[in-house]
Structure prediction request, 251 residues.
Amino acid sequence: MRYIIFDLDDTLLNDKREISPYTLEVLKKVQAMGHKLVYNTARSQEFSQKYFERLQPDYAIVNGGSLIIDKDEKVVFCAEVDVPTLKMVLADLLQITDDLFVQTREHFYSHKGKHTIQKAVPFDFSAEEFPFPAQKIVTDIKDDAMAQALADKYNLAFTTYMGGTFRRYNHIDATKALGNRNLMKLVGGALEDIIAFGDDYGDFDMLREAGVGVMMKNGRPELLGKTSHISEYTNDEDGVAKFLVTYFAME
Prediction:
């Protein structure tokens, strides 16, 4: 049995942010063979819900590894930044930038409503104390050393993604790679059992640790050749599905 674990955006999803009928058909065949389907995304549970309903995966790892749910949407793992720590992190971030977000289990909050992506709820972090623990904190710190120093100061997991434009902070036990590890602990599996697909910096460690790590053909150019496999096709060409068809000799 294999765990087929894939990122969503620019990996499983095509450029229209859809799962193609062909990809869905292949994934269902793989699942019927006894393998487990898992998506591992920085998206929230809410913002990935339509894909959960379409795919009906065995597990979903969301918020960059902070939350794992099973096929019945039962939470089986959760790692959050507690309220006192979050308060200090936000105080430091507000001295650097006003472009920041906080994702909780329920909602995505944007500082002063600067952005409305993912149905973001406006919240003035400089004027009010934020009362909820965070599953992830997203900001646009440009300086690498400054961004890393913040993670070190508060013992947070830190990921650069989207070509270095964004920085994501999570609980120290929550990254995409740790999401895979935590899932394997829960199910009694091993990293060697995983076939993982991704395209960006945030996916790299989980691809490197997997038994089969597949960087998409459309992945970051500087990451191509640094994992065990590269897909022959892009996300817009059903790259995940076509790799699985070949790997499992399905045709």
